[in-house]
């Protein structure tokens, strides 16, 4: 058998194997307008509830004009907003105290913009206010930040510090800070230009929001989603107009068990932090697929807050795939035993360029499974089965006895 025949047989076997592999996935979606080269496929959030726990059962298969099945490699990408924080060097000109307020004047580089100041104060407990002004000549000053609160709490129950000043991007030769509402203390200032690379996000609408005061001076808020979706952030708020600072724990539904007394729900921790009137109260965590979220707030000796869910969602997930030959391509998924694919492009992700975006993903289709023909036993009545077994035993017993009596 020559090498050509062997290669042909191997090719036929590989195509058959790939086609058989494709049929093991429960779901498929058609991919339209895939061009040769690099393409970006946005994964619909609805598919995640049908993936296995490791998300290793995603494949892109194509069927070419000859009816052969080909597999396209891909890279998994998360379209998160990437924050950047550039530190700005400056010179502190002077620090003075006048009429109970502390003043600091900073000399900034001519060509650099700033939109964030971090104050590091030596005190552990304070509640103060800060004004920030800008000037080009130290004669005429313009307001940048007015009456922004900074706070630090340190005791046996909590440890909290909020001393970041955020404001619209400014470009002044000089900055002047006025700190009031606390005794003069040592202050170290850091200046930054904060920016970010834009991300892309899914937002989901909370349904059936319920809130209650739980035992032990705690408040509980629960809400459902339309269906199970991947979530990676939640933003909370409160309707109260006074300042507050509470510990918060966020959980998601892991599974449920039906008992004689009804359904019993088990939750998994997503994250924990602080719910504060000073902050945006946006909590991020590793992406988790769920249909119900629970928020637990520690009130201690304070009145319960009227909580609100401002936003819940996740960053968009995409596949960067390389198409080498024309074919009708499909996104397939939904196989619990599938292992993670191993593609060469995972080692050369930096070489990906000129990616075509927004590839259309079709509606979800359930792939038909081949039903194996069930072979029924020849004898289904147990009485006849026992009769046949007894007859066989008698025949074997008779033959055995005959052989003993006539050894020759």
What does this structure look like?
This protein is mostly beta strands. The chain has helices spanning 3-23, 382-405; strands spanning 27-32, 37-42, 59-63, 69-72, 74-79, 82-88, 91-98, 101-107, 114-121, 126-135, 142-154, 159-162, 164-170, 174-180, 187-197, 201-203, 207-214, 218-238, 245-259, 262-276, 282-298, 307-323, 328-333, 356-361, 365-366. The strands form 3 sheets. It has a 15-stranded mixed β-sheet that branches. It has a 6-stranded antiparallel β-sheet with strand order 7-8-14-10-11-12, with no helix packed on it. A hairpin with a 2-residue loop joins strand 19 (245-259) and strand 20. The longest helix is centred in the last third of the chain and has 24 residues, at 382-405. Mean pLDDT is 85; it is low at 1-18.
How many angstroms separate the termini?
Answer: 54 Å
Report the β-strand fraction as a percent range.
Answer: over 45%
Number of strands: 25
Helical residues, percent: 10-25%
Shape label = elongated
Largest sheet descriptor: 15 strands, mixed
Extract low-pLDDT stretches.
1-18
Order of helices and strands: HEEEEEEEEEEEEEEEEEEEEEEEEEH
């Amino acid at each position: 058998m020559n090498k050509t025949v062997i290669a042909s047989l191997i090719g036929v076997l590989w195509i058959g194997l790939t086609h058989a592999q494709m049929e093991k996935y429960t779901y498929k979606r058609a991919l339209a307008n895939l061009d040769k080269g690099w393409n970006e496929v946005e994964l619909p959030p609805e598919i995640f509830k049908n993936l296995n726990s490791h998300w290793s059962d995603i494949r892109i298969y194509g069927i070419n004009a000859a009816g052969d099945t080909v597999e396209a490699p891909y890279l998994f990408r998360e379209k998160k907003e990437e924050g950047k924080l550039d530190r700005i060097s400056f010179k502190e000109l002077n620090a003075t105290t006048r009429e109970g307020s502390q003043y600091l004047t900073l000399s900034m580089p001519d060509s650099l913009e700033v939109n964030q100041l971090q104050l590091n104060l030596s005190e552990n407990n304070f509640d103060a206010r800060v004004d920030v002004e800008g000037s080009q000549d130290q004669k005429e000053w313009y307001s940048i930040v007015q009456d922004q609160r900074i706070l630090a709490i340190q005791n046996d129950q909590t440890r909290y510090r909020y001393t970041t000043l955020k404001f619209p991007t400014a470009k002044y030769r000089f900055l002047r800070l006025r700190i009031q509402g606390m005794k003069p203390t040592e202050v170290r200032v850091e200046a930054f230009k904060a920016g970010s690379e834009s991300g892309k996000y899914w937002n989901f609408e909370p349904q059936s929001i319920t809130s209650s005061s739980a035992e032990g001076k705690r408040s509980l808020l629960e809400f459902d989603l339309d269906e199970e979706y991947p979530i990676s952030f939640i933003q909370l708020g409160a309707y109260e107009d006074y300042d507050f600072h509470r510990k918060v724990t966020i959980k998601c539904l892991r599974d449920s068990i039906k008992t004689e007394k009804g359904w019993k729900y088990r939750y998994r921790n997503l994250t924990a932090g602080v719910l504060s009137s000073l902050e945006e109260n946006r909590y991020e965590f590793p992406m988790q697929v769920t249909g119900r979220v629970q928020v637990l707030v520690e009130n201690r000796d304070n009145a319960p807050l009227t909580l609100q869910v401002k936003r819940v969602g996740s960053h968009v997930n995409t596949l960067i795939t390389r198409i080498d030959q024309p074919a009708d391509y499909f996104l397939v998924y939904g196989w619990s035993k599938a292992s993670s694919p191993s593609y060469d492009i995972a080692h050369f992700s930096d070489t990906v360029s000129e990616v075509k975006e927004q590839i259309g993903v079709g509606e979800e289709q359930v792939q038909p499974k081949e039903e194996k023909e069930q072979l029924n036993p020849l004898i289904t009545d147990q009485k006849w089965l026992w009769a046949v077994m007894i007859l066989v035993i008698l025949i074997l017993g008779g033959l055995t006895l005959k052989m003993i009596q006539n050894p020759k």
